[in-house]
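Z., the sequence and structure:
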Amino acid sequence: MQFKDQIDFIRQHMKRNKLRVATTILAATMGCAFLIVLASIGFGLHQTITDDVLDNNMVTEIEIAGKSGGETEVAPADIPAADLQKIREMEHVVAVVERNQPEAEAQTVIGNRSAYSRIVLSSMEEEQKAGFALSEGKMPSKAEEIVVGYHMAKQLLTEAEMEKEANGEEVDGFAGSLIGQTIELQLTPFRDEGEEAKESSSWEFVVTGIAKEPAKDWMTDNSVYADSSWGAVFNEELDLQQGYKYILVYADELQNVGGITDTLKEDGYYVYSVTEELGSMNVFFTALKAGLIFVGTIAVLIASIGIFNTMTMAVTERTREIGVMKAVGAQPKLIRKLFLMESAAIGIIGTVLAVAISFAISLLSNWLIPMIVLNSLGEDRPADFTLVISTIPWQLVVIASAISIGVAMLSGWRPARKATQIDVIQALRQEM
């Protein structure tokens, strides 16, 4: 019997019991669709949280929190320059940025406007290599030039505007661009409780650039980014100790962050990168997705009972037909193949329908549920709100299809085997 004839044979018998076959396909479809949709929730949550982590972090950034020095621990400020130079020379490292914050309260003043700021002292050349992004202007080329945070202009208020803001009123801040403006930076050393106030000092700088807007709308950047050479000047003038220092290593691509992180760990550095966070999350979500697939497989197994019953009934109804096939020389292998193909056909049709339905449900849930969540938040809704409820990658489709079709064929194995064991004489005696 040719393959085409085998297909026609199966199609004829499926048409003969349309209702029973249709309900069996429906059960297989529901079981497979439940598996895909349930597992897609795990994939969707994984994508949502991963995107959130990547949005809140520079993905190629590795922070060095210190180094193991045998019995003592070496703080970032005490790591030798020679060691940092070795890191700069590592493969796939594009920049090593040393940022320092003076132990002083900073206030930015322009005319009759002022704002409290965060001072960040760093090498502008290394910052540029690291991809420090600007929304306006250019990076400083002189020590007297600075970059200010994206929200600095809005934070510069007069005393009258400060009173209005304290009363909950809206204020505009500095009007126009800060590019090219000369600002006065006042630094006052921090004092301990009960200690007398210390004298402040001031310096003038020219604004050449405005930093890029933070990734999240709730973040406020009113920093002042100045050249690291000012650290010694501030410390000497105000009699300050070494300020808070942190070191950032930047890779050329995300895929190389893990390798650089591992190398730094082997050299005794205490590091943190986005791959560390993603790694722990991946372990958790891998277990979650595997659990959801397992639960969904139970639904497929339940649906397989219907396939088993349908194929068992098909064997019983076709006993005489099987006897005739054996009488004309059909091998048991062919008979078994025909019934396995029929159960596989039920599984394939059910899987195809399940995949189509699953994608429709996924699209609907990703549109409807975030809309409901946003409406429930009211005026507190974030501007950059994104929520992925369901994601169906091709790997999930392959896994679900393999499980569904595999279970369907296993369900038809016993009835198919039973068909090969039918006695020819007894089968021919059976009434049509």
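The mean pLDDT is 84. The longest strand covers residues 201-211.

Let me know what you think.
H.
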